[in-house]
DNA sequence: ATAAGAAAAGACTGGTCTGTCTAGTTATCC
DNA sequence: GGATAACTAGACAGACCAGTCTTTTCTTAT
């Protein structure tokens, strides 16, 4: 865990480049020069640029979801846990290398042929949606499946636009607006105290 | 107006290609072959690919805003006008060549250097936000500036995530969810009858 | 010490990219 | 009819692309 393997070095360098400059604009040569490795070494660890992209997406998503779970678990039950995702986003926005959502950024670059990468992004977003559903279930009592989906879907939509728009405008108003709107979703629900 | 000039042919071809396959994945040669023109002709109308991109964004945005204004004006005052943007989005989604938001799609491809295109996207999104503010002002009475901004900002965020997520999932649930959430924004306001 | 494996360095293939330039063709207007 | 402008076709430059391969160097385990 956390070892500095060549594998990790490649993913880290590629991740920074893809996230900052875009997938199509980043060349293999940039990745190897930033990793300080030879080209043949890279291709002995990954069979294609597409594979590196999927590893990049997975790494970002896994670490995001881990952070989110930690943010949720560190908060009091109820409203605070339901809004934890916006606290995380606010802190992500404050990082100097914030460039919005890695998944949606990559989605914009895909041509309809690149089904594999699309599948990865869809899977990750569904995973987030599912987790938000759990958080809603844990923090709101006596709630139907339809209501759960509406609330978690709403938080999801607000989060995804907040991350994209704060990046677009280079301003955090979308995060605060989204966070202030989210409670309307469960205003008439039995939020756990 | 609406003449079939070479200028328009270039924008139309480029627009379809950029929107479907992405900006970086679309080559000049593809654009000229789809336009049925020679390369020198293209470069006598546009000085660079970046310029074509900006014309593409402008054309999509202008036509979107025109449609939106028409959708709003054709609806009864009040709730229907406030939600008109989601009706438009639903109809856009049903078009066979729907690929989400042209602006956000392009945003994902930009490296931090491409300030000009970023500026165009920011300007367009601000224009949409401003127009939504007008619609809110026209349809809700006795409302403060802060409340107007919260409601129009909320509709804006819901619209932008709905367009992106419906494209990502190839499903219209985000549009209906966003539309069903939006009224919560003005539940306690004086909506014009 | 030696054998085996991993990695470095970078040449190379075959292709793509944007943008320029030259030539020849067509259309238009006086 | 002759001039002017707009267009076509495609060669070309110079750079970059992903991915393969060879050769040399280094590390490590027995």
TrEMBL record, chains A, B:
GO molecular function: DNA binding
A Pfam family: TetR_N
Transmembrane segments: none
Domain HTH tetR-type: 4-64
DNA-binding region: 27-46
Name of the featured protein: TetR/AcrR family transcriptional regulator
Keywords noted in UniProt: DNA-binding, Transcription, Transcription regulation
Record lineage: Bacteria, Pseudomonadati, Bacteroidota, Flavobacteriia, Flavobacteriales
